[in-house]
Amino acid sequence: MNTKRPNYFTGQFLKESDFNDDQAYQIAALRQHNKSQHTWGVADGLDVTFKAGSPIAHVTEGAAIDADGKMIYLAAGGVDLDFSKSASAATVFSASPA
Predict the structure, then answer these.
(1) In a domain, 88, yes or no
(2) Total of domains in the chain
(3) pLDDT at 77
(4) Which of 45, 80, 81, 84 gives 55 a disulfide partner, CB atoms 3.0 to 4.6 angstroms apart?
(5) What are phi and psi of 24, to 5 degrees?
(6) Secondary structure of residue 69 in the 3-state scheme
(7) Burial call 50-86: b when 16+ CB within 10 Å, e when fewer
(8) Average pLDDT of each block of 10 consecutive residues along the chain (98 residues)?
(9) Is residue 64 part of a domain?
(10) According to the model, what pLDDT value does residue 60 have?
(11) pTM of the predicted model as reported, rounded to 2 decimal places
């Protein structure tokens, strides 16, 4: 971790950069913890549902950690993904074998 931890003292005049440095330190420390102490992947939720033959998939709310230790959150309600304009696949799932 390259970020230096801020060292505050009573009577110190704080500038915007001091608060930014503090946040950068906290974020870097959390990412380092996530990367070294946890396996990347889905932590909670993020279930994917779809209807056979439809190009729409629904991902539910949830959280994950990527390979760099960054937290990924999907808000309440989830999101619908439309693959109909995707260059790689127009159908998310087909009930019959390919």
Answers:
(1) no
(2) 1
(3) 85
(4) 84
(5) -60, -40
(6) coil
(7) beeeebebebeebebbeeebeeeeeeeebeeeebeee
(8) 75 90 89 86 88 84 89 88 71 56
(9) yes
(10) 92
(11) 0.58
